[in-house]
Write a structure and sequence with these properties.
By secondary structure, the chain is mainly α. The chain has helices at about 10-45, 50-70, 75, 90-125, 130-155. Helix 1 runs antiparallel to helix 2, helix 2 crosses helix 4 (about 90-125) and helix 4 packs antiparallel against helix 5. The model is unreliable at about 160-175 (pLDDT under 50).
Length: about 180
């Protein structure tokens, strides 16, 4: 059987648009949950900033995971009706734990990218103003981290190989 012809970049980007939009919506809700919880934990609860941020980060990751699992990648989270011949069915709970763990790892990697951008700008390049820190950490760092998170979420967390039947693969995965 001949391989499928490769699609052009505009076609591939158009096919990815709904997935990217869903990812962005889930991420926006996660950001709002992270920020609101952080402010509440720092203010009302009086927690130190690192504890508050750690807890709000976990909550934001959970919101993002749920949004992506229920929304963006819901077709990839449905269990296969029958396991492939010769393969035992993995319990759904183990699959979810593996996905959530991978999702946390991808998000931690994204956080490290943001910190690295801030560190390079502030300490190596000597750009120490509040504006430079904001641009490097929340601008450049967030953009790079979002790209990493999108790639990691679609290829490492909600991958289709072995988790779902082939007919459920999205249009963006074809070609």
């Amino acid at each position: 059987m001949a391989p499928a012809p490769r699609r052009r970049l505009p076609e591939r980007l158009r096919a990815l648009a709904p997935e990217a939009l869903g990812f962005a919506v889930a991420g926006s809700l996660a950001y709002a949950a992270d920020l609101a919880l952080f402010v509440w934990l720092r203010g009302r609860c009086g927690l130190d900033p690192l504890t508050a941020k750690s807890l709000s980060f976990l909550a934001g990751c959970t919101v993002a995971y749920a949004g992506n699992a229920i929304g963006t990648y819901r077709a990839r989270t449905r269990p296969a009706p029958h396991p492939p011949a010769g393969h035992g069915a993995r319990p759904l709970t183990r699959v979810r734990v593996r996905r959530y763990t991978a999702f946390l790892a991808v998000n931690l990697a994204g956080a490290l990218v943001q910190l690295a951008c801030l560190g390079v700008s502030h300490h190596l390049l000597g750009l120490t103003s509040a504006r430079a820190d904001t641009v490097s950490g929340a601008g450049v760092g967030m953009a790079l981290a979002t790209c990493l998170r999108f790639w990691g979420t679609r290829t490492l967390v909600f991958r289709h190989a072995g988790d779902i039947p082939v007919q459920m693969v999205s249009k963006a995965d074809e070609g």
